[in-house]
Amino acid sequence: MSRTPIAQHALLSDCHSTALVDSAGSVEWLTFPRFDSPTAMARLLDDDAGHWSIRPRGDFSVSRRYLEGTLVLETTFRTPSGTAILTDALAMGPDNEGHGLGRDVPHVLVRSMTCETGSVEVEVSYAPRPEYGLVTPVVSQVDGGLAARGGADRLVLSSPVDLAVEAGGATGRHTLRTGETLPFALHRSTWGEPAARVWAADEIDVLLDRTVAAWRSWSVLHERYDGPWRDLVHTSGRVLKALTFQPSGAVVAAPTTSLPEVVGGDRNWDYRYCWVRDASLTLEALWIAACPDEAEEFFAFMATAAASAVAAEQSLQIMFGVGGEHDLTERTLPHLAGWRASAPVRVGNGAWNQTQVDVYGELLGAAHRLREQLTTLDDDTRRFLASLADAAAVRWRETDRGIWEVRGEPRHFLHSKVMCWVALDRAIDMADGIVDGSRVQAWKQARAEIEELVTLHGWSESAGAFTQYIGTDALDASSLMLPITGLLPATDARVLATIDAIEQRLTDERGLVYRYRSDTGVDGFESTEGTFLLCTFWLAQALAMAGLVDRARGVFERAVRYVNDVGLLAEEVDPESGELLGNFPQAFSHIGLVNAAWAISLAEERSPSS
Predict the structure, then answer these.
(1) Residue 414 near residue 454, CB atoms below 8 Å
(2) Across the chain, which distance is largest between two alpha carbons, in Å?
(3) Which of 223, 395, 254 is nearest to 322 (CA)?
(4) Complete domains list, the chain, with CATH
(5) How far apart are alpha carbons 534 and 240 in whole angstroms?
(6) CA-to-CA distance for 446 and 424, rounded, in angstroms?
(7) How many CA within 13 A on the CB side of residue 128?
(8) 321-332: burial string, b at 16+ Cβ within 10 Å, e else
């Protein structure tokens, strides 16, 4: 089982597939050709599930960075005899500049090791394991590298080093001297596609240069935020772009599955799908961190993926596959031990057929924020957006499983009501662009009814706060969305009391925020979980909106202390060890970082002396 800390990994993406590389130069996770494809390497979840390492032999120290404006990873190894730099990237195609990032990709993982000073003996260990480690392929030598055949994938490793073939893999060593480079490439194909091929050294150089140029051209066009924590916000913007599936416009919640919310626990989920909520919030964050020219693609994707539900007046499905697939049935992979024996390992996600009525608000909230980008919506997408408001006007009265996708009993979750209010509020403001005026009065009536319910019955005198669901005293960090969405001002006395209650009673010793107290049993699980980084950023954002800028900065700084060496965040933090937990990197966490930084920036502009 993998024991490498989650934080020691770095993300590679070509906006189709992803890889995670650890700080010792090993690819521990690789999916081809989509984010949600079965893995070609997954040692992240089991020692026998595949890897590809390139590293110095013997002792070394490591430092890492992304090349400026890119998600091209540079790992510097320092050894007693010399220094070597490993550069890793999932390659972009020839026409991927600017807005076209990820438009056409060759499905090639490029790795290049260069000796900077002295000499370095390099070790290579290659063990592909398709289908989540279920398949041990037949590996054979070909001119210029190795071919691996087994299952649905054909992989060709281009290698300048002679590798000795072993059972299902290969190993080798080579001594690099100053100025020498070892270029590698792993190319994947499947049935009906052109065969994977060996790449020459000069072609690998072109792939790498092209990928650096493609990411930088996107960054130059898109990175416009210039407030505090600028570098963290820009990195978060690139991460959110990296989680966007370019062919469809779908956005995944994270590139991994089953990294646990508690070590050894069973809160292990597959996040490689497009949640309506997460994707909508991603686009809103990109509006701040970058320039979301992908907005029209996403809303067209949603209108198509949800077309059948809209036509039949059914509730909106809360998540889809990146190609618009509906059936995401969950299953376990018992042959995988899980990260640090955190089983089960799951693929698919059983939440796909839950009722979660907050999604109407997230979608219409994003459409409203991005309305300047949505200037050429087709009639189908306009009808889709109007139908979301119609649904919110009716379904806000229903119980659901809420933003946290509880597997306990449905409830009247306060956050779900708030987001239905958002759906109607934003639709009313956009009505001229999406619908005739005949439906607006019904939307206004429903909005008023929701506001009355939330403000009268969502508040608990005994808790001194807005609470998790109607009729409870339990706290929930999602009540911080009341001021963030604008249903109530951040300076409202009850909102301020709620902020104080969450900061005092829903945090760990480090001041990081829990989603809720899991010992209430509301979510259907007995196990606990870590503190939630998104919720901690929500607290910082709400404090900033209330004008409490010093407190907001303090909360923000506590959260970003857990950013890893290349700017990435997982979903949660272990309250005992302080290490990152959960799927990685997590869109929610980077969304929270962007929004909180922006809120603090705006608050400081209003009160520069604070």
Answers:
(1) yes
(2) 77
(3) 254
(4) 6-218 (2.70.98.50), 223-606 (1.50.10.10)
(5) 14
(6) 8
(7) 29
(8) bbebeeebeeee
Q: What is the DSSP string of 198-211?
A: ---HHHHHHHHHHH
Listed residue (249, 219, 478) closest to 361, CA to CA: 478
* The pair of three-digit structure tokens given for residue 282, joined into one six-digit string: 């991603």
Are 51 and 64 in contact, with CB atoms under 8 Å apart? no
Closest CA to 497 of 536, 520, 467: 467
Tens digits of per-residue pLDDT, 210-251?
A: 999 999 999 988 888 899 999 999 999 999 999 999 999 889
Secondary structure element (H or E) that encloses residue 180, with its range: none
Phi then psi dihedrals of residue 148, to 5 deg: -120, 125
Q: What are the pLDDT digits (tens) for 544-585?
A: 999 999 999 999 999 999 999 999 999 999 999 999 999 999
Residue 396 corresponds to which tokens in the numbers above? Answer: 């806000």
Tell me the whole-structure pTM to 2 decimals: 0.95
Determine the pLDDT at residue 221.
82
Cα–Cα distance for residue pair 29/17, rounded to 1 Å: 10
Whole-angstrom Cα distance, residue 445 to residue 50? 57
Give, for 149, the enclosing helix (H) or strand (E). Answer: strand 145-150
Nearest to 256 by CA among 594, 581, 495: 581
Q: Is the dihedral of CA 384, 389, 390, 391 positive or negative?
A: positive
Buried b (16+ CB within 10 A) or exposed e, 550-574: ebbbebbebbbebbbebbbbbbbbb
Structure tokens at 314: 């059914």
Measured CA to CA, the distance from residue 593 to residue 49 in angstroms comes to: 33
Euclidean distance between CA atoms 8 and 20, whole angstroms: 10
Residue 545: strand, helix, or coil: helix
Q: What is the spatial distance between Cα 508 and Cα 536, in angstroms, rounded to a whole number?
A: 11
Q: Any idea what DSSP says for residue 351?
A: G
* Contact (Cβ atoms closer than 8 angstroms) between residue 370 and residue 287: yes
The dihedrals phi and psi of 491, each to the nearest 5 degrees, come to -90, 0
H-run or E-run covering 58: none
Torsion of CA 53, 331, 16, 139, to 10 degrees: 40
d(CA 21, CA 11): 7
pLDDT tens, residue by residue, 419-460: 999 999 999 999 888 887 778 999 999 999 999 999 999 999
Q: Side chain identity at 248, as an amino acid letter?
A: S
